[in-house]
Amino acid sequence: MFDTLIRNARIITMDDAAPIIDMGCIGIKNGKIAFIGKDEPPMVYNAADIIDARGNIILPGLINTHCHAAMSVLRGYADDYNLNTWLFDKIFPAEGRLTEAAVLSGVRLSAAEMLASGTTSFSDMYFFEPSAARVIEEIGIRASLGNGVTALSDDFDFDTDRGVWETFELIRDWHGAANGRIRADVSIHGEYTSRPDVWEKLASLASKHELVTQIHVSETQGEQLGCIERHGMTPVQILDKYGVFENRVLAAHGCWLTDEDMDILAKRGASVAHNPVSNLKLASGIARVSELLKRDINVSIGTDGCASNNNLDLFEEIKLASLLAKGSSLDPTSLPAYDALKLATVNGAYAQGREDEIGMLKVGYDSDLIMLDVHNPRLQPIYDPISAAVYAANGSDVCLTMVQGRILYKNGEWFSIDIERAFHDIYNVAVPLIINR
Amino acid sequence: MFDTLIRNARIITMDDAAPIIDMGCIGIKNGKIAFIGKDEPPMVYNAADIIDARGNIILPGLINTHCHAAMSVLRGYADDYNLNTWLFDKIFPAEGRLTEAAVLSGVRLSAAEMLASGTTSFSDMYFFEPSAARVIEEIGIRASLGNGVTALSDDFDFDTDRGVWETFELIRDWHGAANGRIRADVSIHGEYTSRPDVWEKLASLASKHELVTQIHVSETQGEQLGCIERHGMTPVQILDKYGVFENRVLAAHGCWLTDEDMDILAKRGASVAHNPVSNLKLASGIARVSELLKRDINVSIGTDGCASNNNLDLFEEIKLASLLAKGSSLDPTSLPAYDALKLATVNGAYAQGREDEIGMLKVGYDSDLIMLDVHNPRLQPIYDPISAAVYAANGSDVCLTMVQGRILYKNGEWFSIDIERAFHDIYNVAVPLIINR
């Protein structure tokens, strides 16, 4: 007997052995996929809860491998500025005023947005992460959390630094918590905001606890050139020299990676989180995704924070990743639909160190899945569900989101988030800290 | 007394004199805007129908200045092919099998999608256009229709050609019909599918009836180079030589326009319909939008057909237009939100020859408007409604669509389209002609 059985679904499994099951059925037991295959009528009577998908598309929950969830409080606060004005005059001062309550209101709002648009797991880099973990545990979404450690000033002290301290707290209290849904990541904010002795210490911490390391790498040309000036080598090269890539690294952006950088990433089994919307909006550059994939580098996808996007809709990123790969190479066969969808599923799972848990719909995997309502002119007719999901859909087509077998969102309703309270908190706790200053 | 009064709205007027009315009110009488301003309570009691916008965003209905509406029947039928395979092996053969009923089923489906995603007016280039006009009249959306005349073979005869004949029929029966909602356009498919004597005849037809001329121009590098080989000059230059630009021209794509081409377009007051999604997906190139705008050329926006997009969501195009302008120039101040929104509103109205009717919310203009439901985590918080509409929203946030004062779509319901019949027709009339061949 299954806990839940979903019937009459167009299933995109993302399992290369059988990527599509045309009219199929998924049986869920104890939060895991216990059966997946063509509809078999006798099973219908053998589940506590039966969901008739009515031909809707089911696919693995999407994985956002680079975001700063709390930044939803800054959505639309500062657009169309040049990078330095945006960062130093608008974003950093506003962030400096954010209290723990304001950050948590942003995390809750973002979790609501992610669940409603099909994201079931995200990698986050921000501060107040141990507190964010409590919110995430309560909501039921999956997350890999890291405080992006910065060591900008000379009086940085590793043993008392807040970012380091939060990292220890995450490892001690949250790694593997909430039935494995929460992971602690080590996070170095970036080469340009830190120094070699800190990288070495964080690399050995990641190695000791077998953690993924999140880091911003080669996002802008200025960062890339500045690093060469500072260290005589690129960010990837200098970070590799100090042992960062001996662990599994999730490198965000990578717009300016050189061929030599890519060789190092390939050799080290690192992942690159592609952030196409943010990279265009901030005019950072365009990552050479097809080149990365050609070298067997694991490319995943991310939205970055809402201040540079301005939403968390992974369907937008997946489509844009494919469009940009085609447009920038003048080759319309670049990054076809199925490969684009991999960035946000199987590749995302590897990037998070969760490749045996999520990213595919397969017996034994956790039941993190989403349903797209196809009873909508935008998705009709359907010749190929993968094409529909990648090129026609947007996050608003998601009508059901499940994590570890638990339905967290369905048809405009959140079951673990009080959405009115979330809006109330944003306007009462966060917005007043940001405006009128 | 107004027919309809909308209160408590965040209004984006697109009128440079006062682009935003923060908590405002719109009074509608006989399909036109009769009042627009801050909420004035006494008025509330003075309308047949009162709509409380509850802080939702109201903006002018969006204008799609380049599409092939019927091609929704081919959505997702052929992706990720190189251009020649896509066009000659997949799209053209399938189109050759489309009957009038199949084309009309596609037009109806697309109208439903456009209304649900905020488009109230579109420029269409296809065949069976006089029949499509009947469907459009019935649905209540606004459209400028042209049969893109091709003259590929030597036995092309202007007087008996179907495209020319449909153009005459459109002019005779449909120009200005349906209370001005329908316009006949002259349409030349493109330089590469036609010849000078045909351009001359169509140009004089456009001139005689004062019609807009739709034409594909400089979409691909192959088209551009081929034209130079054939005629010793670019498409814009040769078309100008034969008088096409003496009328108001709506040139679609323009990815490969030279500086000299732009000078001609500027001098002639032509419009360029930018199609960012299609241009990337087919790897045609990236139009130099900022360059065009710098020369005071009117740039509007289009989705192109669903076979190369694969949806008709103008919010996607507006955001991508801004992102591409920033990313391709490495300047994040390029095409800011308000300017990007102009492409789909005021600039679209000019491109269609409707600049005194639509594109702005202003007293005396037709009441073509849309409402975005902001009670959604993706759009919260709101610091600036223009930023929310351009960078955070998608077409699914549209909760109300009105053309000439008549509500055609509201909260998932179409009032002039039987959506179940539309789906039924697609699968029974169109899809069988396309698959299994």
Describe this structure in words.
The structure is a homodimer of 437-residue chains. Chain A is built from 15 helices and 18 strands. Chain A has 437 residues and is α/β, with parallel strands linked by helices. In chain A, helix 12 packs across helix 14 (385-392). The longest helix of chain A has 17 residues, at 100-116. The radius of gyration of chain A is 21 Å and the shape is globular. The N and C termini of chain A lie far apart (59 Å). Chains A and B meet through helix 2, helix 9, helix 11, helix 14 and helix 15 of A and helix 2, helix 9, helix 11, helix 14 and helix 15 of B.
Quickly list its features.
TIM Barrel; alpha/beta; 5-stranded parallel β-sheet; homodimer; 9-stranded mixed β-sheet; 18 strands; 15 helices; 437 residues; Urease, subunit C, domain 1; 2 domains; globular
Text of the CATH class of the largest domain in chain A: Alpha Beta
Using DSSP, what is the number of strands of chain A? 18
Assembly category: homodimer
Given as residue ranges, the uncertain stretches of chain A (5+ residues, pLDDT < 50) are: none
Straight-line distance between termini of chain A: 59 Å
How does CATH name the architecture of the largest domain in chain A? Alpha-Beta Barrel
- What is the C-alpha radius of gyration of chain A, as a whole number of Å? 21 Å
CATH superfamily of the largest domain in chain A: Metal-dependent hydrolases
Number of domains of chain A: 2
